[in-house]
Design brief:
CATH class of the largest domain: Alpha Beta
Low-confidence stretches: 1-15
Distance between the termini: 94 Å
Largest sheet: 5 strands, antiparallel
Number of strands: 10
Number of domains: 2
CATH superfamily of the largest domain: PAS domain
């Protein structure tokens, strides 16, 4: 931020200490090494400790030290007739600071550095502080959002792994005896799960060289949709094409009604009311050929 300086604001006369004591502008005298020889009361207000004998940079925020050194270098090369341009530098402490506009030059007679300055209007400074606070709050909000995103992503990954585990365990094809598999179906079955049941069952048939598959339907939900009934029956028919005999167990009333409404033929299917009767029957069937 740059401030326009009027020509009459550039003081080029020998400083009278009594006058400087009452000025609201900043007046600082430094030696060639940048040590403060004099600071008027307006300048002293920016520091909690006496400034005389301190380095010029003690007035500045640490982030402004480099800029302060560059300003002193420019002031050493300037003259009362041709002072430096206005430099905006932060003075004070990190808890309480002000933006100050400085111009400087080297006095002809003493070789001292004369630094003159004005503090930024307090209303502008307050807006600057408020902007910094808002920026800090925004940065913290962004960090919190990133932390929440990471937590949500981790929760999503955990849920996905859990779902995969549940899916793997939800339709297990259990080998009972050589050539005999049991597939207990439990709970609500949606289209995706019915598709997964078919795929996993056909793989298990191939893996175990099954001749008989017992489909236990007694545990499925009563509100099974007609389209799901059709999918399960198509899975059973797929078993027949592979030379496997499907055995239906525990057909619930809604499932039976849907079969009738669909007009599906159950030719080649064997049905039992409960699992115990189905197991007793399959136990006596030959393993080498279909019943």
């Amino acid at each position: 931020m740059k401030r326009e300086w009027r020509d009459n604001e550039v003081v080029t006369f020998n400083i009278e200490m009594g006058l400087c004591e009452h000025l609201t502008e900043l007046v600082i005298l430094c030696d060639a090494a940048g040590e403060i020889i004099y600071a008027n009361p307006a300048t002293q207000k920016l520091s909690a400790t006496p400034l005389q004998g301190q380095a010029f940079r003690s007035l500045l925020l640490p982030d402004a030290w480099v800029k302060g050194e560059l300003f002193l270098t420019a002031a050493k090369a300037a003259s009362p007739q041709n002072p430096t341009a206005a430099w905006d530098i932060l003075m004070g402490t990190t808890e309480r600071y002000s933006l100050v506009f400085l111009r400087g030059y080297t006095a002809d007679d003493s070789g001292q550095l004369v630094i003159l300055g004005q503090v930024e209007d307090q209303s502008v400074s307050a807006m600057h502080d408020e902007l910094l606070d808002l920026t800090s709050e925004l940065a913290e909000a962004q960090r919190e959002m990133h932390r929440q995103n990471r937590s949500l992503q981790q929760a999503f990954n955990d849920q996905r792994r859990l779902l995969q585990t549940i899916q793997a365990l939800s339709t297990p094809a259990i080998p009972l005896w050589p050539g005999v598999l049991l597939l207990p179906l439990i709970g609500h079955i949606e289209a995706e799960r019915a598709k997964r049941i078919s795929q996993q069952l056909l793989q298990a048939v191939k893996q175990h060289r099954a001749k008989y598959v017992i489909l236990d339907l007694s545990g499925i939900a009563e509100d099974v949709a007609p389209v799901i009934t059709r999918q399960l029956l198509e899975t059973a028919k797929s078993l027949q094409l592979l030379g496997v005999k499907p055995v239906l167990v525990g057909i619930i009333p809604t499932f039976a009604q849907t079969i009738v409404l669909l007009g599906t033929e159950l030719k080649g299917f064997v049905s039992y009311s409960d699992l115990s009767h189905a197991l007793a029957a399959v136990l006596h069937w030959p393993r080498g050929a279909k019943q």
